[in-house]
Design a protein that fits this description.
2 copies of one chain form a homodimer.
Chain A (H helix, E strand, L loop, with lengths): L6 H9 L3 H12 L3 H14 L7 E7 L5 H14 L4 E6 L18 H5 L3 E3 L8 H17 L4 E6 L5 H6 L4 E7 L19 E5 L6 H16 L11 E4 L8 H18 L1 H42 L5 H9 L2
Parallel strand pairs in A: 1-4, 1-5, 2-3, 2-4, 5-6, 6-7
Chain lengths: 322, 322
């Protein structure tokens, strides 16, 4: 992005659902060049009234669970019904040139070519906060461009599931049948975030094992507090490869939206998510600045505290004074 | 505390396990009077080498689960064996004059009178961070005074279970038999912190229901990731009223300590806890100062963001500049 962006044209392009404009706009808000900050803010302010219209679906799963195949199957089904589908990703470990998730669009060959679909790899960056913030702005831009469903995928590096959970309405955990103790394969704390667990690869010889895994997950979910107030998380099976069970997953997600819209939880949570996002970014920026200023001293105090050589109160006093 | 504290005498008194000195020292570190800060820090620095010797046990439970009776039964058993037992509390909702947990020592009449026991109500204060920090210092003072076991109780206001979990080695969740779906009575996220669930009031007509509840909790625990690496959380029953099963609970806690000491997790976690405590207090003080300076503007921006009138990026720029 060498030339200064022509904002009025860009905004008009987004509102007209022009994919090139959308891609260019995302590049602008992802840019960390100081000269792009003001136009990026102006762009976000301009499109804000056009946002909020999509169903936001988060997706995570263990490697090998078939996330790409699942997204392709679900996306193609929805595109075939005239829905516009955007696919984004949060992967703080990726770099645009490296082996980024979704970077290789050939993983979703059909979907990438469909005129109703828009696929965008994870923004690069090492800080999860920064990557998530930029993905959230990309999500809003997709909404302004008229996308009906936005799938946000994560590979589950660090706390990236939590980040995706906080920017989506529905959170789906994709699994495959394991070796009996199904919990083993799931990262600590992730199952607690899920509105549904979908056991993929329920096909061929694997069908029965997938069904058993589903029963096991149903039991697990029974023992957990639901993440979404008033929603009882469900376990399902599907075969993304054979496009079986995808319809049922989608019905569940639509049912979720309808039920939560009626109860008011849907809108209330989006407002909460806005404030939480603001609060956590504010905190991380304020702390980042503080650490940049006092990094060495903090490190010295933290080491003394860790080794039991200095009480925490003394270390804090030394850092912060009175 | 009107007179300036005689520090050398206070420190000597603590090391000699004098209860009056210990109580006075805790009052000093709990004080928020500016003139007490320097001597409090000096005191903490002086006693730091004498800390670390106790087994730190956190305890929470639904109201009515019989926490006081349980602490009295466990405490009396340990005191009878010559152990020195301190009981502290984290209750951010209490005030010293109000109906503070443990404030009414008559709830643990026998233990309060035992020469091996030391009971201290929750420090007052509205911020959980502040209350927890002062309790943590009181815990270190108790260790310096030679207490072998320190029980830290919480009533579970806000995130107080997490606060107690981060200052203890073992975390015990006390429950009673419920109405079938045992999970209903437990606060979201709390069961995930537990190293053991103890179903109390397993006596009289209630014995069978308590045993069934234990079976149910055992299932729940099977489906959760253990909080402590390498430790499989257990469910037990007891009757604190009849002093039945208390011995078994204590054996479990000692077994926990032995196993984790051998694996190195015990010491490693204490070091981590030190650093986490330092980090979270540093963060809360830095953010408190920032909010004190910019409170009104933050509030205005947060509202605009919540109502969808301002993009988060614009609000942050307005607050933080470039």
């Amino acid at each position: 992005m060498r030339k200064p962006p022509d904002l009025p044209k860009l905004i008009a392009g987004i509102r007209a659902s022009d994919r090139a404009s959308l891609a260019q706009a995302i590049t602008l808000v992802e840019s960390r060049a100081p000269k792009h900050r003001a136009p990026a803010r102006e762009l976000m302010q301009a499109i804000l009234p056009n946002t909020g219209g999509a169903l936001r679906v988060g997706l995570t799963g263990t490697p090998g669970a078939g996330k790409s195949t699942f997204i392709e199957a679900l996306g193609m089904m929805l595109c075939g019904r005239g829905k516009k589908v955007a696919v984004l990703a949060v992967d703080p470990s990726s770099s645009r040139t490296g082996g980024s998730i979704l970077g290789d669009k050939t993983r979703m060959e059909d979907l990438a070519r469909h005129e109703n679909a828009f696929i965008r790899p994870s923004p690069s960056g090492n800080s999860l906060g920064g990557v998530a913030a930029r993905t959230r702005e990309a999500l809003l831009l997709c909404e302004a461009a008229g996308y009906d469903v936005i799938l946000v995928e994560t590979v589950g590096v660090g706390q990236s599931e939590t980040a995706v959970r906080t920017m989506t309405d529905f959170f789906l955990l994709l699994q495959i049948a394991g070796a009996g103790d199904e919990l083993q394969g799931i990262k600590k704390g992730v199952i607690e975030l899920a509105d549904a667990i979908v056991v993929n690869k329920a096909d061929g010889d694997n069908k029965m094992r997938a069904k058993l895994a589903k029963v096991e997950y149903t039991k697990v979910l029974h023992f957990l507090h639901p993440f979404t107030p008033g929603w009882k998380p469900k376990a399902l099976t599907c075969s993304a490869l054979n496009c079986e069970g995808i319809e049922r997953v989608w019905q569940l997600i639509e049912g979720f939206r309808d039920q939560l819209t009626e109860s008011g939880v849907f809108e209330a949570r989006r407002r909460e998510q806005n404030v939480d996002w603001f609060d956590s970014l504010l905190q991380s920026i304020v702390m980042e600045r503080y650490r940049a200023e006092h990094g060495q001293q903090i490190q010295r105090m933290a080491t003394a505290v860790k080794d039991g050589q200095m009480p925490v109160s003394v270390a804090l006093d030394a850092l912060l004074g009175d």
